[in-house]
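Human:
Care to share another protein and its fold?

Assistant:
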Amino acid sequence: MKIQLAAILSLACVSACFAAKEAPQKSGGAATAPVVWKLKFTEDFKGNKLNEKTWSRIGPGTSDWNRNMSERPDLIAVKDGQLHAYGVKNDDLAADKRSVLTGGISTHGHLAVKYGKVEIRCKLEAQKGAWPAIWMMPEKPKAKWPDCGEIDIIERLNSDGFVYHTVHSGWTAEHKNDPPNGGKGNIKPNDWNVYAIEWTPEKITWTVNGKATHSYAKVGDDPNRYPWTEPFYLMIDMQLGGQWVGAIDESTLPTAMHVDWVKIYSGSRNGKTFTEFLKPTK
């Protein structure tokens, strides 16, 4: 009887172990399933003019980042399969009193995405006072900044050999390290780099040249902690000057950022897509 019982228990143990090995892991639910990214949008800047169905030039504002922005046509150029956004010394003070002018483009009013992978191949020229940026803002914000949320894919200062990755929200304004809302990624300073975010309902992960460099995860259900739950549009701009980057050396201008392509992917888990695209009309 003891021998028979031992055999039964041994067989049950083997069966249980085999079942545990073969059964799908349920811990964490769908959020732990691998993400499959599928390319849905490509901008490769062919031709010799900006595709105005997708992009608009960024105009001036009163913030540090857009104080010197201008829609002047020569500040954005499309040629040789690339976009070039310039920062220049202003040679026509009669038309515009600002001493420097910068160019940038935006998909606002044309294309926005909620969750997904956004990838940009870009080359940044070094310059004292240069502050090129690639970032995202909500297409239809439900609150004022920073509560509405902001995703800074990259920002580079001067001639740094790295870029900054940051998110802004109502929560991060008071809790920058719970979890850390910013990180850095090393770059090839004088060469092309591929910058990306992989944005899911649970987390935003930044990559440089395919290597993960920072992440910001959702914690709990407080919308102030993770407001990135609606469509955001993309901005690419060659900024100059400001409190963060410091003074501009105007004698060494012009400077530029060069963009080879922009790609946006939809994401899915277990065959279910979680990315949403919005194509508003202005």
Summary: The chain has one domain: 32-278. Residues 32-278 form a domain with the Jelly Rolls fold (CATH 2.60.120.200).
